[in-house]
């Protein structure tokens, strides 16, 4: 018997690397495990994390049981602390009312109004699991762009910030021209390939602070913070031209696909996501009526 070779049914010993290839330590985080904003997850970085109903909260929970500034969590000497900020419904940790600043432990449950958060320390293996679940919850599985729900949450925060600081902001709605005939003639698998390719073009086109998402069917959206309407139009024209220049393989042949784009900028009468999207949508339909493969700006 060869003693240098382990038997076939012997369990292989797993070796854990302690060297430079080991992943960098993660930040601690909180995850909403019950109530409004279920599944939302946010890391706790260097600055204090504000939890509340205010649009500028780091962890925004839009429910009437949550105060505008409900509680805050911060790192201190290698530990994480939490304090109530005078909330109408006092913050609770593991069902006990929070009377003063308290150190959090891995797995602690934090009650904020009718929502429950779970604190996960940076050393917990559970953090990776929640990160994976969170990423699945906020992304469109076909294009890997943000989904509509997550886009709305991010857009509300960006619009509130731009309004508060009187900064420019623009929004583009992008719709694939004549997409139904593509599905009807070549099938939904081919149609999905077109959407993936356009999603990739949009992701490559977006700048670091831009928010790109697929909001339904063949419709995409791009939020442009710190961008005046003239710059937004130039950006949209570059995206439109880039997609027009792409080759899409349909039925074994290279085909051209185009998009129409409607743009709206933040104004006093569009200081919320609903009116801003409605204005961009109206501009998009004008682009369709005027012949497609064009960019139109809201009146």
Task: Outline the secondary-structure elements.
Layout: E1 29-34, E2 41-43, E3 49-52, E4 59-60, E5 71-76, E6 79-84, E7 92-93, E8 96-97, E9 102-103, E10 109-112, E11 115-120, H1 126-138, H2 148-165, E12 169-176, H3 179-186, H4 188-205, E13 211-216, E14 219-225, H5 229-244, E15 248-250, E16 253-255, E17 259-265, H6 273-289, E18 295-297
Parallel strand pairs: 3-4, 17-18
Antiparallel strand pairs: 1-2, 1-11, 3-5, 5-6, 6-9, 7-8, 7-10, 10-11, 12-14, 12-17, 13-14, 15-16
Biggest sheet record: 6 strands, antiparallel
Strand order across the biggest sheet?
A: 2-1-11-10-7-8
Report the total helices.
Answer: 6
Cα shape: elongated
Question: How far from one another are the termini?
Answer: 85 Å
Mean pLDDT: 89
**Residue fraction in strands:** 25-35%
Q: What class do helices, strands and sheet pairing give?
A: alpha+beta
What would you say this structure looks like, in words?
By secondary structure, this protein is α+β, with helices and mostly antiparallel strands. It has 6 helices and 18 strands. The chain has helices spanning 126-138, 148-165, 179-186, 188-205, 229-244, 273-289, and strands at 29-34, 41-43, 49-52, 59-60, 71-76, 79-84, 92-93, 96-97, 102-103, 109-112, 115-120, 169-176, 211-216, 219-225, 248-250, 253-255, 259-265, 295-297. It has a 6-stranded antiparallel β-sheet with strand order 2-1-11-10-7-8, covered by helices on one side. The chain has a 5-stranded mixed β-sheet with strand order 4-3-5-6-9, with no helix packed on it. The protein is elongated, with a radius of gyration of 24 Å.
